[in-house]
Structure formats: structure tokens, C-alpha cells
Amino acid sequence: MTNSGDTYDVAIAGAGPAGTSAAIHLATQGARVLLVEQKRFPRAKLCGEFISPECLRHFERLRVADQMISAGGATLTQTVFYSRKGRSVNVPSEWFGANERALGLSRSEMDQKLLERAKSAGALVLEDTHASELLLDNGSVRGLRLKCGSEIRDQHALVTIDATGRTRALARKLHNRRKPEPGGRYRLVAFKAHLENAQVAEGACEIYSYPGGYGGLSSVEGGVSNFCFIAAAKDVRRCGSDPEAVIRESVFRNPRAAYTLAHAHACSEWLSVSLESFGRRKLVPAEGLLTIGDAAAFIDPFSGSGMLIALESGELAAQTITNQLERLRRSASFAPLAREYRLEYGKKFDLRLRVCSLLRRAAFVPSLAEAAILFFGISTRLRRKVARTTRPSRKLETPPPGMC
Ligand SMILES: Cc1cc2nc3c(=O)[nH]c(=O)nc-3n(C[C@H](O)[C@H](O)[C@H](O)COP(=O)(O)OP(=O)(O)OC[C@H]3O[C@@H](n4cnc5c(N)ncnc54)[C@H](O)[C@@H]3O)c2cc1C
User: Fold this and answer.
1) Residue 344 near residue 320 (C-beta atoms within 8 A)
2) Of the residues 18, 61, 197, 319, which has the fewest C-beta atoms closer than 10 A?
3) What is the rounded CA–CA span in Å between residue 282 and residue 275?
């Protein structure tokens, strides 16, 4: 094992949108940042690949907007929810700001562009590197143990960030919590692939509700569509874990999905993942450790705002650390940083997480989903109001002073 002499200001594990957002903001503010990612990019990732309109404002702040827009993704002007009985309601993208458009772009492209930007902003980026342990000193986190092939090294940092996504690979270590066995307490399984020949309406992200789950179909770059869907684990087991059998048995119970997917076929590998739970987790699991993105809170995917919250929480953590960095460099207490992060996080996200949790409950019960689509179909004003509640308030969206 080697022990690097360098101490970074911030060590971040995970280079999804949360980790790269934090790394870019911190590095442009002059912090010494280490970003480690277990995979080599570009890599495919299970996701609906619906990049909500507000993300484009974050891309501008991160100085990657031009690259994202010129990557050949699809412009998505509305999200349309289809019930099992064939009813539909739409949510125009422009409700989230004048002239706003969502983007359909693969995670492979999006994450790669953010990672390249983190490098050019000055972060040291290590791919193919697994953050395998937290370095602990009397219960306080002082950095990461990194594993790259057979090489293991310890890397110290004033602040460590868990941006490892839903697995919360670092925070989980503190409580000695093992991942549940596959099929154990998981009740939902998600699948995704890129499809050819899907009949999705141009400019739409279509969401289909069916017993036990829902799925989202929208165009991405390269003339293909991304189909990502969630099904009950018991239905998946009944279909021998074959995603195409689950589509035939469950998804096709939604007539719109049966039409748009009738002649579609996968042109990429199917990815799958088990879903454990939704909602808030610990933001500061130990002194010296913050969580961001899905590691801090996993919002229901149909809200289409997981990546937005990842970008925002990365920015918020960066801002909080930047505010406290000089103090931390003088070995001052971590407590004020922890307090500020918890407070600001609550202000930004708590209401949104609560509303999405209520909508999620409706989405999984076909009769409630049917009633919700009928109800929201009656009043555009109400629909707009609820849709806005799942997104940042305009007041809170202003970039913090000094941030890029
Ligand atoms: C079925 C489904 C559909 C979704 N659809 C959408 C959608 O359409 N739009 C939307 O906005 N959101 C969607 N989301 C949510 C979105 O994918 C997440 O909110 C977002 O990816 C969170 O970003 P993150 O950076 O926190 O984590 P992630 O994107 O999960 O990134 C975590 C990174 O950490 C790395 N990592 C993990 N462990 C380690 C380790 N020990 N060491 C080093 N690296 C590690 C991983 O390889 C990964 O690259 C969906 C989610 C699901 C499950």
C-alpha cells in the first residue's frame, strides 16, 4: 500500500452528475480536488436519459452547455403521461421557464462531457479507481482508500464526498450495512436499452403506467430511443428476468406502450438494476463526510429530476465547502460546514422530495394513477402548479455569488 503525501481539500468518489458538478465548481473556486470513478468513461448507465430543462442552466454555469447541445441529442418539448385506459396528460417543458426545452441525450455522452470538464477545470480525475474504504481517525473521515487494479493507496482530504449514487458505497461503510441480497428486500427492478423502430411522438418523453410500475420512452442522439422501465420484482422473476418478456407481459398492458414499442428492438445491451428505497438519507454521515446526488436522496425517477438534483446538490456542497475552506485549512471544526449544508439542503429540496414521494405512491397503484391522470387532465393550471412544485423555486435558482 502506498500513502500519497498530498492532502487534497476535497476527495470525491463517483463521477456521475453530482460528483462532477461538485468537482467542477470546487476546482474553479481554487480548491484542490480529487475525483475518483470506478468505471472508465464513456460508459452506458441505466437512466431515462431525460435531461430536464433546468439542467441546461447548470450546464451553462459548468461551462459545458455548448458541448451538450451540439452532441446531437433530441429536443424534448413535452412529457406525456399515458394511463392504462389510454388517457393522457401532458406537461410542456416550457412550464419550467420561457423557451425551455428538455434534452434527450445518453448518459454515456453526458457524463463523459462533464468528466472532461472536471479535468479541464483542474480536478485530478482517476478513472478505473474504486474508493474501497474511508480513512477514519476517531470516527472522523480523513480521506479515501483507493484501489486501482492491484495497487492500493491512501489519499487524505479535508472533506470527503460520497457521490457514489444510490449504493452510497462510502456512507454504507460507516454502518457496516451490506447490500441486500438480490431478490431479498428489493421490490422493484429497472431495465433500460436503446431501441430502434420505436414510434415515440417527436419531441415527447412518453411515460406509461401499468400494473406494478411505469416506463419512459424518448429519443436520444443517433436516431434511436431510450426505453427505461420499472417493474415489480415478482413480475420480473415470473418472466425469468428477461426484459423483453416483462415488456410483453406487463408494459404492453398500457395500450400506448403496446403501440409505440410493437416493432421496436434493442440495439444496445439491456442494463438492469434492483431498486431498494427512495427518499432522504444522511447528508453528513460522519465528521468530514458529505453525501450528494442519489447518495443524499433518491427521488422517484418519473419526476425526471434526479440528474437536476444531482447537479444542484453538487453545486450546493461545493458552495458550502468553499465558504468554509479557509477555516478547514486551519484545522477548524467541521461542525459549521455540516450545519450549513444540512440547512441549505433542506431549504432547497425537502418540499420537492415530499411532493415527488406522494406522486410516486399514486404512480404505482393503477387506479390512483388513472384517477390522477383524469384529475390533472381537467385543470391545466393545477397541473402546472404541481409540476412546478417538483422543481426548484426560481428564487433559489440564482447561482451563489462567486460560483462559476
Ligand atoms: C430507472 C431510473 C430512471 C431514471 N431516469 C431519469 C431521468 O430520465 N432523468 C433524470 O433526471 N434522472 C433519472 N434518474 C435518476 C438519475 O439517474 C440519478 O438521479 C442520477 O444519476 C444521480 O446522479 P449521481 O451522480 O448522484 O449518481 P450516479 O449517476 O449513479 O453516479 C455515481 C457514480 O459513482 C461511481 N461509483 C460508485 N461506487 C463507487 C466507488 N466505490 N468508487 C468510485 N466510484 C464509484 C459509479 O460508477 C457512477 O459513475 C433515473 C433513475 C433510475 C433508477
Assistant:
1) yes
2) 197
3) 18
315 CB within 6 A, ligand 1? no
CATH of the domain at 137: 3.50.50.60
Q: Is residue 110 part of a domain?
A: yes
List the residue whose alpha carbon is closest to atom 18 of ligand 1.
Answer: 306
- Examine residue 392 and state whether it is found in any structural domain, yes or no: no
305 lines ligand 1 (CB under 6 A): yes
For residue 17, give the amino acid letter.
Answer: P
Q: Is residue 332 part of a domain?
A: yes
Strands 151-162 and 289-291, how do they pair?
A: parallel
Amino acid at 383: R
Which residues in 302-311 are b (16+ Cβ under 10 Å) and which e? bbbbbbbbbb
Buried b (16+ CB within 10 A) or exposed e, 313-335: bbbbbbbbbbbbbeebeeeeebe
Task: Name the burial class of residue 201, with classes exposed (0-12), middle (13-18) and buried (19+) by CB atoms within 10 angstroms of its CB.
Answer: middle
pLDDT in tens, 304-341: 889 999 999 999 999 999 999 999 999 889 999 999 99
pTM for the whole thing? 0.92
Q: Tell which atom from ligand 1 comes closest to the C-alpha of 293.
A: 26
Count of structural domains, the chain: 1
Enclosing domain of residue 153:
2-70+104-179+278-361
Q: Over the stretch 45-94, which tens digit does the pLDDT of each residue have? A: 999 999 999 999 999 999 999 999 999 999 999 999 998 888 898 888 88
- Look up cell 468537482; give the residue: 23
Cα angle: 369, vertex 370, 373; to 5 degrees? 85
Here the cell at position 100 is 425551455
Helices (H), 261-379: 306-329, 335-363, 366-378
Residue 221 covered by a domain: no
